[in-house]
Amino acid sequence: MELASLPRAAELVHAGTRNPRWHPGAAPALHSEIFAASSDGGGMGALLALAGAALRQRERGRVEERALLWVQDKAAIRLSGRPYPPGLPQALRHRVIHVAADSAKDALFALEEGLRCRDLACVIGEIAGNPKEMSFTASRRLTLAAERHDVPLFVLRHDARLDLGSARMRWQVRSAPSVPPLWDRGAPGHPSWHAELFRARGHAPGEWTLRDDGHALGAERIAAPDHGDLVPDADARSLETG
Amino acid sequence: MAIWCRTLTLDRWRQAEGCTPGTGADAAPLVLTIDTAHGPRIEAVNAAALAEGAAPGMMLADARTLCPRLDLRPADPAGDLAFLERLALWAQCWGPWSALDAPDGVLVDVSAVAHLFGGEARLLADVTERCAARGLTVRVAIAPTAGAAWALAHHGPERAILAPEHDPLARLADLPVAALRLDPDVLLVLRRLGLKRIGDLVRVESGAGDRAGGRDALRRRFRTRHAASANPLIRLDQLIGHVPEPLLPVTMPEVPLVQRRLMEPIRHRDLLDTVMADLAADMERLLEGWGEGARRLDLAMWRVDGEVLTRRLDLAAATRDAAHICRLFAAKLDDIDAGFGIEMVRLTASWAQSLPLGQADLEAAAEEHGTSLAACIDRLSVRLGAGAVRRPVLHPSHIPERSLRWQPPLEPEPLHQEELRFHARPAKLLDKAEAISVLYASPDGYPRRFRWRGEVHEVARVEGPERIAPEWWRERGNARLRDYYRVEDGEGRRYWIYRSGLPDDGRGGMPDWFLQGLCG
């Protein structure tokens, strides 16, 4: 381990200097995991917003459009359906390559193969529940593959317990009441999501209300009472050295 | 140039027997027959049998009454066709391309090549001579159009030549109408009309003499016949070259094939992997030489005990990368039962596409470890099945579940109209819309509350209805329209639900409600 990467004494005293709060302009993590209920489309929406922001940041100045691999296991397809291009964000609509995997094991294989491919812009995975293949080792493999080949990975976990995982950012997302539109006050407006970043490498945990207007990701921090540096929940900790 | 093998079936039989005409087994009356639903029918007869009264097309029983000592052998139509294909390829020694003229002829394009043989007459003599050397009795003719050459070969004088400066109708006027390659029922009609020769038909068709009304009658008679072989007027135009007649040339497809015969039968997987690697390397070298890449590969393994095991591999894009091919086949070889051993392995590229040599990326390739998109899709479809990796493309339909088609990922996207921007659509669509129970103030009004998967959702905001009418041109008449609503419940979850039908549309009872999509 390099000496420079170790925390200095001053940083240990003030956690905030080393672990700044996450903000929408921050460099996107290569492996993000999003936990949401399967009956709530908000998890998907927040994932697409985060993925869209990451792609906008990474593809600035790039001319060609690269494809996007979307892997779903069978249970995820049954619970939440398949992607429907007319409803996807404009930038992602024509780039989807869909993989319907029978089991979580096949889905993990497809995710890893996708990460190894240099022609993909990003990889999206949907896995329902906590299958035993989706272990800490499996998620560590995905993280390593994503970082080695520099392909961002977003995994949506439907109805899953917060198990151990090595994702660089782990969010828990649910829908939030939308902003009423300007003209028809009774209609659903621009979607917004309540997102809790409960584990992240390099960022302090926090809660935000996310919004996406198609051009930029907006985040509004929900102030939580500060209890100082208490030990966070054990089940939300990852085993790796942060 | 048309080559007509007059006695192809008999010639082939003689070749198989190894006898010359009139000697050996051919000296006695002999017929070649095929089995039909009404008993054996004569396909070909030799000279002796013809003299006794047997004729092609006769039933065998009829011929036997004329000549009881008739000898009988089975004919081989499939073999004849295969022979004809080889003959068509062989006939390309007289011209750049040739076409089959089933069942017993070949057409060769000899435009501007006759001078290589010393003129057209010498060319025809050469053809006759070389075919006779192969034991084939042929009639040949040269004409500016395929139809005229065919007519002259079948019904004209021996080795007829129709030069471009001749008037084809004048030269062909004496030939029977059968020379127009017509169906038997059309020939019957023409015979009943009294049109026996091409000249008669031409006179009527041109409206010469006292038959001015005949032309319209003839045109009316064959107005609905669009097939060339059923319409003598089209055939006549093809004969003189007024109407084009496309021919399908015969080409010899060469399938890239590599194989290994093994000294000792192999029974173990690691040995098979070694052989596979060798074969893939051979295939790569072969395809590279041709400038091609494989889209489909067939691997066949011959076992000692007479079994043949085959494995097929479909590739998303043309490739000739040996390591990639090996890796994909490795997943397919897991369930191979070698039995007493495999003694021969063969790899064929049954579908190859052009793949020119490309310049490798000197710097980036060394650094980037990743695979290409095509290789990634190949690996996924080998492991998950071919139908698992697909790409959604839009299809012209208003019904949401029909407006999407799934196609292989690397195929080009079909043209479609840009979707309308003011339609809000959900990000996810359920495979099958799920029935929900809805509480509403009035049956055709907004939903107030609904229950889906055992959970009650209070509708806080709603937008709609967006009415999508059934597609009357493909659905049954009692299909109901759909009123789509975008709803948001108290917690901000958004859904796309619809009411199937209206309460008073007379197409069933009270309308049902369905949830079809989840909005992001």
TrEMBL record, chain A:
Gene3D superfamilies tied to this protein: P-loop containing nucleotide triphosphate hydrolases
InterPro entries associated with the record: P-loop_NTPase
Region (Disordered) location: 223-242
Protein name: RecA-like protein
Originating species: Aurantiacibacter flavus
Lineage: Bacteria, Pseudomonadati, Pseudomonadota, Alphaproteobacteria, Sphingomonadales
